[in-house]
Amino acid sequence: PAEDHAYVAEIKRLLKAENAVLVAHYYTDDAIQQLAEDTGGCVADSLEMARFGARHEATTLVVAGVRFMGETAKILSPEKRVLMPTLEATCSLDIGCPADEFSAFCDAHPDRTVVVYANTSAAVKARADWVVTSSIAVDVIEHLQARGEKILWAPDKHLGGYIQNKTGADMLMWDGACIVHEEFKAQGVEDLKRLYPDAAVLVHPESPASVVALADVAGSTSQLIKAAKELPNDKLVVATDRGIFFKMQQAVPDKTLYEAPTAGNGATCKSCAHCPWMAMNALDNLASALRQGSGEIAVDEALRLKALKPLERMLNFNA
Ligand code: 13P
Ligand code: SF4
């Protein structure tokens, strides 16, 4: 639509004028992902977003994604201005893990190394020894387990269960879940496999164990796109947010992609997986953020310094 063209032109102009770069997650709208790519920004998984933002020389980072991604950017680059299209875009994992309750949980288990998923608030990260994203979680826990450490894990019980299954680590878990991935059902994936027996199954490990058990490859969004390219299969069943199809289909133009069906949380579509918070990012609020400097992320300095340590451990970790 003409309106979108006007926003795209305005955003391109403002990115230059503000010495800003756009960092977008794979679950945001196609138009936002395209803009990030066209303007020298990045479209990535959450670990790559963090790395890209920290390294980039722009003085303003515009983070299209959910709140924890903007906070992570600010914690790593306090000297940069970090803007988001909306500060309302949260995550069910973040909501389900309030810092005070989490802190009490940690206090009750002082013998455990605290490892938290990146999908948490700055205050929860500040209480952690390590932060991990899904792309690096198994490697980090393997490393800690080899050192004989017992783990306290939060907040995603499905990702935690997946890691535990892979590593055999001693993990005490918080009871949190992603409302999007939790809706995938093994039955739906099995039905698609029956229809397309040659298809490979790609699953984000925030999905329930019964769904991950059917996966040919489980991994972060970037890892799933990489797997789509590397697998010999012409058909792929994909269990993650449908936003990923934009870049995945470009990566494998000759393959057929099937959305794993969900029971649907009804927030954005009836039977598809789409995060309602990622969906809050749009061209109009992205343009406003740049125009008005709205949606700016602020993190208290004392908290930032505490949250920085476990984040830096993640970024410096080499498997
Ligand atoms: P990735 O790190 O795989 O991009 O995951 C982030 C996320 O929020 C998945 O729901
Ligand atoms: Fe959080 Fe799930 Fe949305 Fe990712 S898809 S941001 S884990 S609610």
Overall description:
This protein has helices at residues 2-17, 30-38, 46-55, 67-76, 92-95, 99-107, 122-126, 137-146, 157-167, 186-195, 209-212, 221-230, 245-251, 283-292, 301-316; strands at 20-25, 42-44, 60-64, 81-83, 113-117, 130-132, 151-154, 171-173, 200-203, 217-218, 235-239, 256-259. The protein is an alpha/beta fold. The model has no long low-confidence stretch (mean pLDDT 96). Residues 45-47, 119, 133-135, 178, 206, 220-221 line the site of 1,3-dihydroxyacetonephosphate.
The unreliable regions are none
Instruction: State the shape.
Output: globular
- The number of helical elements comes to 15
Quaternary structure of the protein: single chain
Q: Structural class given helices, strands, pairing? A: alpha/beta
Strand tally, please? 12
Order of helices and strands: HEHEHEHEHHEHEHEHEHEHEHEHEHH
What Rg, in angstroms, do the CA atoms define?
19 Å
Helical fraction equals: 40-55%
**What spatial order of strands do you see in the largest sheet?**
2-1-3-4
Task: Assess the beta-strand content as a share of residues.
Answer: 5-15%
- The rounded distance between the terminal residues' Cα atoms is 46 Å
Q: Describe the main β-sheet briefly.
A: 4 strands, parallel
| Mean of residue pLDDT values | 96
- What ligand species are in this complex? 1,3-dihydroxyacetonephosphate, iron/sulfur cluster
